[in-house]
Amino acid sequence: MNNAPNHDPTSVKLVLSAPLSGLLVPIERVPDPVFAQKMVGDGISIDPLDQCLRAPCDGDIAQLHPAGHAVTLTTPQGIEILMHIGLDTVGLKGAGFAPRVKLGDRVRTGDTLIEFDADFIATRAKSLLTQIVITNSDRVAAFTMHSGVVTTVRDVIMELTLAGGAQAAEASVEAAKTVISEAILIPNPTGLHARPAAVLANIAKKFKADIRLRKDDRQVNAKSVVAIMGLEIGFGDKVVLAARGDDAEAAIATLTPLLWEGLGDEGYAPAPAPASFAVSVKAAPAPRPRSDDPSLLIGAAASPGLAVGEVFQVRHAEILVTETAEGDPQQERDRLDEAVNQSRVQLEALQARLHGQSAADKAAIFAAHQELLDDPDLLDIAHSALAKGKSAAFAWQRAFTTHAERLASLRNELLAARANDLRDVGRRVLTLLTGAEPERMEPPVNSILVAEELTPSDTASLDRNRVRGFCTTLGGATSHVAILARSLDIPAVAGIEPRALDLPNGTPVILDGGKGTLRLNPTPEEVARIRRTQERQADRRTVELAAAHQPAITLDGHRVEVVGNIGGLADAEQVSALGGEGVGLLRSEFLFMERATAPNEDEQFEAYKAIAEALGPDRPLIIRTLDVGGDKPLSYLPIPKEDNPFLGERGLRVGLDRPEILRTQLRAILRAAAFGKVLIMFPMVGLLSELRDAKAILEEERQQLGVGPIPTGIMVEIPAAAVMAAQFAREADFFSIGTNDLTQYTLAMDRGHPKLAPKVDGLNPSVLRLIAWTVQAAHAEGKWVGVCGGIASDPQAVPLLIGMGVDELSASLPTIPSIKAQIRSLRLSECRQQAQTALTLETAADARALCPDPFTEAV
Question: How buried is 769 (Cβ within 10 angstroms: 0-12 exposed, 13-18 middle, 19+ buried)?
Answer without folding.
Answer: middle
